[in-house]
Amino acid sequence: METREKKFFSPVLKSYNYDLAERWRIEWYIPVYNGLASKRIVRYGKINEGITVEERLKYADNLIKSLNLESPIKIKNNVLDKVIELSTINWRQKTIEAYTTVVNSFKIFLDNRDPEKINEEMIHHYLLTLSRQGKDKNTISKYRNTLFTLYNKAVKIGLIKNNPVVRVPTIKRNPKSLQYFTVQQIQKFKSIEIDTQLWMGIQFLYYCFIRPGELRLLKVCAINFENDFIEIPGNISKNGKTEKVALPRQLKEQIKFLQEYPNNYYLLSKSGFPGTTPISTKWLNDRHREVLDRLKIRGHYAFYSWKHTGAVKAVKSGINIKDLQLQLRHHSLDMVNEYLKNLGVMDSEDLKNNYPTL
User: Fold this and answer.
1) CATH architecture of residue range(s) 76-173
2) Does the first or last residue of the chain, that is N or C, have fewer Cβ atoms within 10 Å of its Cβ?
């Protein structure tokens, strides 16, 4: 009972899965009416002055310490947190957020136990707990592999001596690719009124293959209207490299209005038009799912399907494969060919139309 009360009334960070577009806070509960009820206490401090996840976590840590209350989940206080902290320069923000999610889940399971002093049996018990919580096999495998990676790095840099996680050989899977939209489905999208920002996001993905994670942080200054290209900065790109993609004339016509906004404004903002606060990480997918439901489009479709749709359309319209490679930002033609093969794109008209009759 003592542990339960301690956990319930201790301060915790509410970060909305580390979403910088949300207002983070520290909250905890205090007993009232002789312990028969509780009252929630909320403090923001300087947390939301941080412009990066790391800065906000630092402000949150300082705020919790200033409260002089004990938190069951401390921020940056053990070997796993230390590994993430030391790797922020080399890892993508999305990777950091994914690893942090696993670490926080693991710390909740451990309660006040030290992650440095656990063994293989406790890891196994944690994985069983995830299963009882309804996590699927792929998610459990991902969590286990994440812990193995973090502990392994901790061993390499001398933070601990042994890795308590046993690595299980992964089974090579061939995940089913998202479907691309047909001509009829595209017409359905164009026949109804769609949120302006969602439609702009669809066009950027269709014409320029700019990934959702990159798109939500892209600013007006990235678009060069004079020379018809868009530069994706390395600090928001998936591979950490700054690269350029062509700006097709159709998209250029649709986004000319962006020139009226300050260069430091995000293209997609919480305000509903370009602004200083980016949309949340799930905004595009959630809004797109609403449209799919509205149009009654069933199947393996998502916002990312527009990238596949653009690639298929480009191939079938005769776009040079090398130009497509540069637009996709794939490192080789083999990678492009494999990508198109997975989409089922048949670029040989002879096979379809001139095959010898039996």
Assistant:
1) Orthogonal Bundle (1.10)
2) C
Burial state string for 234-265 with b = 16 or more CB within 10 A and e = fewer than 16 = eebbeeeeeeebbbbeebeeebeebeebeeeb
Residue span(s) of the chain under CATH 1.10.443.10 come to 183-352
As given in the structure block, the two tokens for residue 330 are: 């794939």
The angle formed by the CA atoms of residues 321, 322 and 328, to the nearest 5 degrees, is: 85
With both helix axes pointing from N to C terminus, report the angle between 305-316 and 321-328 in degrees, rounded to the nearest 10: 160
pLDDT per residue as tens digits for the range 63-113? 887 877 654 444 445 788 888 888 877 777 778 888 888 888 888 888 777
- Give CA torsion, residues 188, 192, 194, 198, to 10 deg: 10
CATH architecture type of domain 183-352: Orthogonal Bundle (1.10)
**Measured distance CA(279)–CA(21) in Å, rounded:** 6
In the chain, CATH 1.10.150.130 sits at 76-173
CA atoms within 13 A of residue 166's CA, in its CB half-sphere: 8
Q: b/e per residue, 23-61, with b = 16+ CB within 10 A? A: ebbbebbeeeeeeeeeeeeeeebebbebeebeebbbbbb
